[in-house]
Write a structure and sequence with these properties.
This protein is of the alpha/beta class. It has nine helices and nine strands. The strands form two sheets. A five-stranded mixed β-sheet has the order 6-5-7-4-8, sandwiched between helices. Strands 1-2-9-3 form a four-stranded mixed β-sheet. Helix 1 runs parallel beside helix 2.
Length: about 200
């Protein structure tokens, strides 16, 4: 099983085999269209949000509305988030939000692009940057930071995580069983505990 975002698509397109691929729904749809996934096998597993974090003990900015979120970003000194050009989903969605808010240019000078949400959280925990952005599941698991909350829903940050069977898999029945489990009530509690919704 491969679990990431854009790199999943690239690895499958390059011919890598796996029991199942799990990533953002549009990327799996692309793989399906290119014949790299078994037709009819793609299922939605979870929905993920993107959250803002601060260092433990630091003041917590107000992000309870779109306007409050915009003001908090503009008043911040620095922010780190996954590089959208490298496929970081949190970064992709944040950049869209910044553009929609009309503050992308104003934020550019105080932005540090990193390889992952974990790295963004680490920079916040060490005091290197004031704010960090990561998928909520990543943010909640990070040490030394407090998750302020998910970005306002009005910004359209809604990541659908799906799974599909890779074409050429050795044991098709086992892969189907895995996908059935991922969409079962037993998996739902684990998905919720990880900061996502089934």
């Amino acid at each position: 099983m491969i679990v990431e975002a854009v790199p999943v698509r690239d690895r499958i397109l390059a011919g890598e085999l796996a029991d199942a691929a799990i990533t953002q729904r549009p990327l799996l749809d692309e793989l399906l269209a290119k014949g790299r996934l078994v037709p009819g096998s793609v299922v939605d597993v979870a929905r993920s949000t993107v959250s803002l974090v601060v260092r433990t003990g630091s003041p917590q900015p107000n992000i309870s509305s779109v306007d409050a979120f915009r003001r908090s970003l503009l008043s911040s000194t620095s922010i780190a988030y996954p590089d959208p050009n490298a496929g970081g989903l949190a970064g992709i969605y944040l950049v869209r939000a910044l553009e929609g808010l009309g503050i992308a240019e104003q934020m550019r000078g105080k932005t540090t692009l990193v390889a992952s949400g974990q790295e963004a959280c680490r920079l916040v925990a060490t005091g290197t940057v004031e704010l960090g952005v990561a998928q909520t599941s990543t943010a909640r698991a990070a040490a030394g930071v407090v998750t302020i909350g998910a970005l306002p829903k009005e910004l359209g940050v809604d990541i659908v995580v799906s799974a599909g069977i890779v074409t050429g898999v050795g044991d098709l029945d086992a892969s189907r069983e895995l996908l059935t489990f991922l969409t079962s009530p037993a998996a739902a509690s684990v998905i919720r505990a990880g900061g996502m919704e089934p």
